[in-house]
Amino acid sequence: xxxxxxxxxxxxxxxxxxxxxxxxxxxxxxxxxxxxxxxxxxxxxxxxxxxxxxxxxxxxxxxxxxxxxxxxxxxxxxxxxxxxxxxxxxxxxxxxxxxxxxxxxxxxxxxxxxxxxxxxxxxxxxxxxxxxxxxxxxxxxxxxxxxxxxxxxxxxxxxxxxxxxxxxxxxxxxxxxxxxxxxxxxxxxxxxxxxxxxxxxxxxxxxxxxxxxxxxxxxxxxxxxxxxxxxxxxxxxxxxxxxxxxxxxxxxxxxxxxxxxxxxxxxxxxxxxxxxxxxxxxxxxxxxxxxxxxxxxxxxxxxxxxxxxxxxxxxxxxxxxxxxxxxxxxxxxxxxxxxxxxxxxxxxxxxxxxxxxxxxxxxxxxxxxxxxxxxxxxxxxxxxxxxxxxxxxxxxxxxxxxxxxxxxxxxxxxxxxxxxxxxxxxxxxxxxxxxxxxxxxxxxxxxxxxxxxxxxxxxxxxxxxxxxxxxxxxxxxxxxxxxxxxxxxxxxxxxxxxxxxxxxxxxxxxxxxxxxxxxxxxxxxxxxxxxxxxxxxxxxxxxxxxxxxxxxxxxxxxxxxxxxxxxxxxxxxxxxxxxxxxxxxxxxxxxxxxxxxxxxxxxxxxxxxxxxxxxxxxxxxxxxxxxxxxx
Length: 631
Ligand code: 6R9
Known about the structure:
alpha/beta, binds ligand 6R9, 7-stranded mixed sheet, globular, GMP Synthetase, Chain A, domain 3, 19 helices
């Protein structure tokens, strides 16, 4: 499946556009199917209705596990590096991972889980998390993994939206110097979740936890009661594989749905190609499995290719800012796939931490999650890659399932800040506000995709109409990404950032409306408006303008109360970096908040605010500018 030269890329790309079905059938032939498809693709972007490999039967875990056993059963599948460098790392071979997955799948079955049931997973970055994900897939249960930074309320909303039957969690998680009480958060969440009848709890931090009789069971006890024989459930290509919640323009998170066949082919194909993975190499993706990057490039993509995937429990700066480089040295990492925010944060510690380590094993570097600024790109290139490792700047989304616009390592000439060119099968187009295609080069517009690819989302769980409205209605017959983009004179793509009300904080998507809703829940808050602003490390920070007429004399105290509320309602990841108390918000006569103005204020660019004549009360702007200057 690997493309070896730029010429071959061009030919492959042309084939993928001219004969998409032939192209993808050829790729899909590299996977294990119990029965091949009757039809490669049927689609329309109006409803939308997208089906890949219709009629095919398979189980993704047979591709990720069983098919490697005979020849590569003793190869390492997962290397786990704990938060605490003093603790031993753990290696699971394909044989052992297969056994553990089968065993845990039997635990799920024994506890009443059936094909199609939704399972919530809220776990630390430990091998059992990958085991839990794959065990669901083994028996056809739909996993919904929730990142460990979300609050009880966020979890409850997600569990209720998907009507989950069972939750898999752990007592706690280690994150750097901190401990997170996962089970306690789940206990709080489940007060409002009538559909959950069982909770499986893994022991990890050994913090005391409450175990409710009849509901809560220990992972370690359960696996003793079952054996390791668990035939894989036969799935249709279009059966649901997982739901993953992500933020959008409105307050309510969206349950993005991916299906088995297309997702597998897409995650596997993009992994093998873009990173130029060679068997035996160690692939280190620093994301958490709670995000799409972890789903596709820690679990499914690498394992489908028989790769060795490294799972790291901790954070880049613990116990010191050389942790990533120590891990690279210790496990002879060949590919390091991380986020610009991590690079910027590590850059701020200077070159000592990185120069002290042996990074000679590195062959390919990757970036994901947000635009990478040139300074970070060069630092990554020079200090980490020593000028010899291609950097693949991979643009994609939860909704796309896998990489979309990205260099292919050793094939596509790279350019700092550019995701470069579309991968085979991906047909990007730039449109103006009216939806007219913008042709030619040296142009910019809104990024859309005009033809389906196997990894694309199929629906939003329980709300197909919202899926249509969000992605397929802005521009008829196109998938709208929500990103702005430019195409330079060479035809290279550079993603410039979201054009909707989503902000990207440390590579995490956060909806401004979600944060506003959370702030507004705090007693005393009349109204709020949230915008993003440039932040040196996080990429974007969260700036909240809050109307709070009678706040505490000590404004700092009220600010902390608001932060606490946001942490309760969404989770610590959504805490505003700045809160400005104002007496009014700039609104149009029809009552819409003019965020454009607030964005300028947040950026500190108040000299040229543009036209404010449509405002109901233009004087609030002066007041806000004054308040911002004093803050
Ligand atoms: C994979 C992932 C998706 C949003 C996306 C865009 C931003 C991701 C990027 C990038 C510039 C890149 N984004 N990769 N922007 N260059 N290489 O991050 O998924 O969490 O759904 O976020 O992230 O704005 O629309 P997700």
